[in-house]
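G., the chain you wanted modeled:
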Amino acid sequence: MSKNEYQPPKVWEWKKNNGGAFANINRPVSGPTHEKALPVGTHPLQLYSLGTPNGQKVTIMLEELLALGVTGAEYDAWMIRIGDGDQFSSGFVDVNPNSKIPALSDHSVNPPLRVFESGSILLYLAEKFGHFLPKDPAGRTEALNWLFWLQGAAPLLGGGFGHFYNYAPVKIEYAIDRYAMEAKRQLDVLDKQLARSRYVAGEEYTIADMAIWPWYGNVVLGAVYNAAEFLDAESYKNVLRWAQDVGNRPAVKRGRIVNRAQGPLNEQLHERHSASDFDTNTEDKRQG
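Predicted structure as tokens:
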């Protein structure tokens, strides 16, 4: 072994200045770093999030519910700037002890109910309002199969492939090859499934699509990681067809820009408190 290769110590120690895009926010302990209460708006649902793929899942779901006329799904969406450490405030840790976005507080019940982890939030909202999760046992189970597939698969796409291909301070061939292989295997799984049906879990649009689209849909459409060409996204024709189909839904177009802090200014709605915010409070309007 070369003397220049990394040799793990007997006991790992945290080096705060270890480089990388997320070095300033990652840490090996949990809990709050500072005292700060979360804001609370006027709607039943209070969402604390950022417009990452995980955050988009929930805002897409809420916008889809509102599009169906479910008034109880009205929500306030507050931006959690993870680069600034907002997720480590005492208020956020009270809602999600894991300090990850998104986190939801349901004030339609007393005391308010906290819901954290994106898959749990989607399932909670589907059961609360009775939409986007089939009622029959076979359809429900298939939708949940794919919801939990995403919860297990996405970290390999994001924290694995996305990190080492797009964010890591150095390009490591072994790491990129390892996770590119897994990302392509996952895309192949999806492509074969979508050859059988319009949506991931069948002919019905469900929370499985809402969970998977912000990750795999955005990847094949070239919206994250700049990796569509590298992964040969065009070869996954069924995934592309589905990604475009879901991406063209009006509620998806709205949900994907809520709490977004990057990209074109007209696709950034930092906070959402009413439907009119999409017309009046995107960053191009605010800064104009």
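The chain has a mean pLDDT of 96.

Shout if anything looks off.
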